[in-house]
């Protein structure tokens, strides 16, 4: 072979063997990003609003107050961790008052989740990057938030036993399920 001859590549195109993020399969064990945002923004917010309304007027001298406050603070920490998993933002002006911190943490976590790209959220990263997808840690963070809400509900029910009835009332923000196409309407 001389310097003027065309060289032939003896190796096939190696980039054809590399995975692309958008072509990877969807992880079926992780719900969609829209579902996670809706669960946090509608369902969890509705439950937390009812829980806080039940104990907002509880005096700090009440012997049940420290246990309730501890559970609500752990809920705020779980919401902050969820927001940190979605998008690492340092907020230095976190409200100290628990009644303000709870909705602030919910808003912060929801806004951080909305910054994620829904089209690639459920897909695993390409193997060659040696990274993990954000979907599994974010979903785990949501499960921790739901567990904290359940624990807080138990503590608030010790203060206000009627909270269970309030929680069973439907959320005013939750829309009615849509009819499938081709299903007869019940309206006249």
Give an overview of the whole structure.
- The protein has a single domain, classed as Four Helix Bundle (Hemerythrin (Met), subunit A), CATH 1.20.120.
- 49% of the residues lie in helices and 0% in strands.
- The radius of gyration is 24 Å and the shape is elongated.
- It starts with 32 loop residues before the first helix and ends in a 20-residue tail after the last helix.
- The chain contains 5 helices and no strands.
- The C terminus is likely disordered.
- The chain is mostly helical and 188 residues long.
Order of helix and strand elements from N to C terminus: HHHHH
What is the tally of beta strands? 0
Straight-line distance between termini: 85 Å
Return the CATH class.
Answer: Mainly Alpha
Largest sheet: none
Number of distinct helices: 5
Structural class of the secondary structure composition?
mainly alpha
Count the domains.
1
Q: CATH topology, what is it called?
A: Four Helix Bundle (Hemerythrin (Met), subunit A)
Give the C-alpha Rg: 24 Å
Annotated CATH architecture: Up-down Bundle
Shape: elongated
Unreliable sequence segments: 182-188
Mean pLDDT: 80
Helix content: 40-55%
Strand-residue proportion: under 5%
Key attributes of the depicted protein:
49% helix; mainly alpha; Four Helix Bundle (Hemerythrin (Met), subunit A); disordered C terminus; 188 residues; elongated
List the helices and strands and how they pair.
Layout: H1 33-55, H2 65-86, H3 98-114, H4 135-159, H5 163-168
Helix pairs in contact: 1-3, 1-4, 2-3, 2-4
Short synopsis of the structure:
The chain is mainly α and 188 residues long. It has helices at residues 33-55, 65-86, 98-114, 135-159, 163-168.
């Amino acid at each position: 072979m001389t310097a003027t001859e065309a060289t032939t590549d003896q190796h096939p195109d190696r980039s054809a063997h590399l995975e692309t993020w958008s072509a990877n399969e969807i992880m079926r064990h992780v719900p969609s990003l829209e579902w996670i945002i809706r669960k946090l923004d509608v369902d969890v917010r509705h439950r937390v609003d009812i829980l806080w309304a039940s104990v907002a007027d509880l005096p700090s001298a009440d012997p049940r107050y420290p246990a309730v406050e501890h559970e609500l603070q752990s809920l705020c920490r779980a919401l902050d961790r969820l927001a940190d998993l979605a998008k690492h933002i340092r907020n230095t002006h976190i409200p100290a008052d628990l009644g303000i911190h709870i909705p602030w943490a919910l808003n912060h976590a929801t806004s951080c989740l909305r910054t994620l790209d829904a089209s690639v959220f459920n897909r695993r990263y390409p193997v060659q990057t040696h990274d993990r997808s954000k979907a599994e840690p974010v979903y785990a963070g949501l499960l921790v938030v739901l567990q904290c809400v359940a624990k807080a509900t138990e503590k608030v029910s010790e203060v206000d036993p009627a909270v269970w009835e309030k929680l069973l009332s439907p959320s005013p923000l939750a829309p009615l399920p849509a009819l499938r196409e081709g299903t007869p309407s019940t309206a006249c």
